[in-house]
Structure formats: structure tokens, C-alpha cells
Amino acid sequence: MELIINTLGFAYTICFATCFLPQIVKTIISKSVDNVSVSVYYISLAGYISALSYTLLKVGLDLWLQINFVLSAISSGIMIYCYHKYKKRKVVVNKVVRSIRVD
Questions:
Q1: What is the rounded CA–CA span in Å between residue 11 and residue 30?
Q2: Per-residue pLDDT at 17
Q3: Rounded distance, CA 34 to CA 86, Å?
Q4: What is the maximum span of the chain, computed from C-alpha positions, in angstroms?
Q5: Which residues contact residue 80 at a Cβ distance below 8 angstroms, ignoring those fewer than 6 apart?
Q6: Buried b (16+ CB within 10 A) or exposed e, 27-44
Q7: Whether 84 contacts 33, CB under 8 Å
Q8: Considering only CA atoms, which of 94, 44, 88, 89 is closest in space to residue 69?
Q9: Count of CB atoms within 10 A of residue 7's CB?
Q10: pLDDT tens series, the chain, 103 aa
């Protein structure tokens, strides 16, 4: 039973901690935050900090919950950083100027 509990704890920790990873990678590669709602990440960060505080005060030391909330908060923080780093940057995508020949 303990193995099942630890496996589930590991699985949800990995899922929560990496759920923002695709958006982070896309943002870093494209250096663009168009269509990104940064408020989601601020709310998530506040939620993870609150959940970590609640867990420490109410449940006590629970390794999987604490790792989950800390890693997830770090993911949110990275995305918030990326958002503010790239929000003013304009990306020019291969602008091709062709001259039209008039005979």
C-alpha cells in the first residue's frame, strides 16, 4: 500500500510541477509572450504558496505535497519572469520585400 501511495505522490508531483513547462519552453524559444495570460501564473503562484503554508500548518511535513507546491511555484515564477522579460520585445518574422516589375 505504501508503494502505491508514494507512486501516486510522485505522479501528481511530476504532473503539477511540469504542467507549465510547454508554455515556458515555447516562450523561451519564440521570445514572444503574445497570447499569454500572465494573471494565470500570478494566481497559480499565490495558490501554491498558500497551499504550501496550509500544508505545513495543518498537515505537517508531507514530502510529496511540499515538493509539489515548491516545484509548481518555481514553474509559475519562471513563466512570470519570462513574461516580463519578453513582453516589450517585438519579433520580426522573416520580412520579405519584393519589388514589382512594371513593363
A1: 29
A2: 77
A3: 9
A4: 83
A5: 38, 41, 42, 45
A6: beeeebbeebeeeebeeb
A7: no
A8: 44
A9: 10
A10: 888 888 887 888 888 778 888 888 998 898 888 888 889 999 999 999 998 899 889 888 878 888 888 988 999 999 999 999 988 765 555 555 555 555 5
Total Cβ atoms within 10 A of residue 87: 12
pTM given for the model: 0.72
What pLDDT does residue 79 have? Answer: 93
> All 3 cell numbers of residue 80?
512570470
Give ∠ CA 92-98-103 in degrees, rounded to 5. 165
| Residue 72 contacts residue 17 (beta carbons within 8 Å) | yes
Determine the pLDDT at residue 101. Answer: 56
